[in-house]
């Protein structure tokens, strides 16, 4: 139970908890061994005093030397163990945590990525884990080890002489009370610093993404000014935060050290009153410095531990967001897609209401309707990019909410407007469609998608890098690459969002040809924008305000004279289906 809480609090892996326990254990041993060293010093001093008062030679030199050698060896061994248990294991912990987070992100429902943007998530995987690394390696083991060894030593001191023990140790709880008392202040400052830092990185990212627009509209100065303001704000918040923690941490350290003064005061009084002898005070003064030392090491970092709480929370938030889970096998009977009374809300507001329709295998089902009527949402739900809030979506009789999204998506090809291309060669970008496809397969798919002729014109043909997100390609070319990908994948279900923008007539014809090859025999759900597609579809589903207004074959809907016919007539003059 405690273990779980501890693990959550410091965002540790299971192995990390074990390592921390190990680190704390060795820290206790190290601290006790060092105390043993003090014991040897004490014995030597005591003998020396005897000789000073009684005269005669110093006895047992060999014994002392032996003890010192033993101490050095023990000390060496335990320090090495402690080092390994704290620093040595952290590298693996960092690696495991980063991989764990990335793996988790991969499985989160897509909706999550609207809530936390890319800069934010990158900051968690890199920055937050870095901050935690410092805590894992430099603080946890030392601090918890110091708690335990100090408790052991405190008990021994209290048994030895309670008056001196209290004079010695009162500062420790007071110092910690001060630190923990200031904790809320520290955490709040950390939260503010983190937010200010995010605003800076968001600002920079935004500027980079929009560099063209900014230049074109001569807004550089305004932009830089804004960025400057954000950076100044970050600096101000950071300095204020660090100043605050600095005051508390140093205050705590000073209070703890005041124990030396009180020990001397109390000790001197006791000696004068004849209650103790000088050697006992000497013993306490020896011990006291060693009691403070391990805390001193971690005190400076305990503020960091508080601050890191923000990082740990941000990491845990990723771990604790429910992932889209499901069965590892998907064995549908055919690939009809059935929407069965589906309702859906991105947040509170429901955007789809009681949507029911079937997209049959071997047919093209076209979703049409005004912008915002829910076409894209239906397509996303069909691929389980989100889960339906009400009702169910079945593919070949299997409720897709019961299937692991990764497994499910093997049966889907998606050709959406926002094609994601990577800064790699044309060949590799197409090969993404099917892991391990041969060059010949890729070329065949490219040819079928009408990519061949434009690729031949590129300087290095299929080996030409296409720039970040395909910057060097036109809209139509990018789309054909994504169709080539889908052809290569040859999945039984195709979800298609027809691009409306920027296709000239020639390009459009080529895209259409490529598409007709891709779509043959599949279950096709298309968000239709073009008249041609709509008329060629086997079935039309007309959406209006998130409801199915009409559905049926195009001719039947025309004959019915409802919303569909109205829309068609409105658009008759235009070649484009501009309702989307
Ligand atoms: P269409 O594709 O027909 O234009 P959408 O499916 O994109 O319509 O949108 C349907 C409704 O859902 C709209 O009201 C839109 O504002 C809302 N919506 C779309 N995407 C999101 C999102 N990621 N978060 C919140 N609301 C969204």
């Amino acid at each position: 139970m405690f273990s779980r809480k501890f693990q959550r609090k410091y965002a540790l892996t299971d192995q990390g908890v074990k390592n921390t326990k190990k680190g704390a254990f060795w820290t206790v041993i190290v601290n006790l061994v060092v105390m043993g060293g003090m014991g040897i010093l004490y014995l030597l001093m005591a003998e020396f005093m005897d000789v000073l008062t009684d005269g005669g030679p110093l006895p047992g030199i060999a014994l002392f030397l032996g003890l010192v050698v033993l101490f050095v060896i023990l000390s060496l061994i335990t320090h090495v163990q402690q080092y390994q248990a704290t620093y040595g294991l952290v590298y693996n912990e960092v690696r495991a945590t980063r991989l764990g987070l990335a793996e988790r992100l991969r499985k989160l429902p897509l909706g999550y990525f609207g809530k936390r943007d890319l800069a934010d998530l990158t900051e968690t995987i890199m920055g937050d884990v870095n901050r935690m690394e410092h805590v894992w390696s430099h603080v946890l083991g030392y601090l918890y080890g110091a708690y335990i060894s100090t408790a052991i030593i405190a008990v021994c001191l209290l048994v030895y002489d309670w008056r001196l023990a209290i004079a010695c140790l009162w500062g420790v709880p007071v110092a910690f009370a001060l630190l923990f008392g200031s904790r809320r202040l520290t955490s709040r400052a950390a939260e503010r610093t983190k937010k200010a830092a995010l605003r800076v990185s968001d600002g920079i990212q935004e500027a980079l993404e929009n560099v063209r627009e900014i230049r074109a509209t001569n807004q550089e100065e305004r932009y830089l000014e804004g960025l400057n303001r954000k950076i100044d704000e970050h600096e101000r918040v950071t300095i204020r935060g660090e100043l605050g923690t600095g005051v508390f941490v140093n205050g705590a350290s000073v209070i703890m050290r005041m124990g030396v003064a009180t020990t001397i005061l109390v000790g001197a009084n006791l000696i004068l009153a004849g209650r103790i002898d000088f050697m006992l005070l000497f013993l306490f003064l020896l011990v006291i410095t060693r009691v403070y030392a391990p805390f001193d090491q971690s005190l400076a970092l305990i503020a960091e531990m508080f601050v890191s709480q923000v990082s740990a929370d941000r990491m845990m938030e990723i771990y604790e967001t429910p992932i889209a889970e499901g069965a590892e096998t998907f064995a549908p009977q055919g690939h009809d897609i059935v929407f069965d009374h589906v309702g859906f809300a991105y947040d509170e507001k429901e955007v789809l209401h009681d949507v029911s329709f079937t997209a049959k295998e071997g047919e093209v089902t076209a979703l049409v309707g005004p912008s915002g009527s829910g076409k894209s949402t239906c397509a996303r739900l069909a691929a389980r990019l989100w889960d339906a809030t009400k009702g169910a979506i079945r593919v070949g009789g299997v409720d897709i909410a019961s299937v692991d999204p990764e497994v499910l998506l093997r049966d889907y090809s998606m050709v959406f407007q926002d094609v994601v291309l990577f800064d790699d060669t044309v060949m590799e970008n197409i090969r993404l469609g099917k892991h391990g496809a041969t060059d010949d397969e890729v070329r065949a798919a490219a040819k079928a998608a009408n990519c061949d002729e434009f690729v031949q014109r590129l300087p290095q043909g299929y080996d030409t890098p296409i720039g970040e997100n395909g910057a060097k390609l036109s809209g139509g070319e990018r789309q054909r690459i994504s169709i080539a990908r889908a052809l290569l994948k040859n999945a039984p279900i195709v979800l298609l969002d027809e691009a409306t923008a920027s296709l000239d007539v020639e390009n459009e014809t080529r895209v259409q040809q490529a598409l007709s090859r891709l779509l043959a025999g599949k279950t096709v759900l298309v968000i239709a924008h073009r008249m041609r597609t709509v008329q060629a579809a086997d079935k039309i589903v007309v959406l209006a305000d998130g409801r199915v207004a009409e559905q049926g074959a195009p001719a039947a809907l025309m004959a019915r004279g409802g919303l569909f016919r109205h829309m068609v007539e409105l658009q008759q003059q235009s070649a484009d289906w501009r309702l989307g």
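The CA atoms of residues 119 and 201 lie 7 Å apart. The pocket of adenosine-5'-diphosphate is lined by residues 114, 346, 351, 369, 371-377 (CB under 6 Å).
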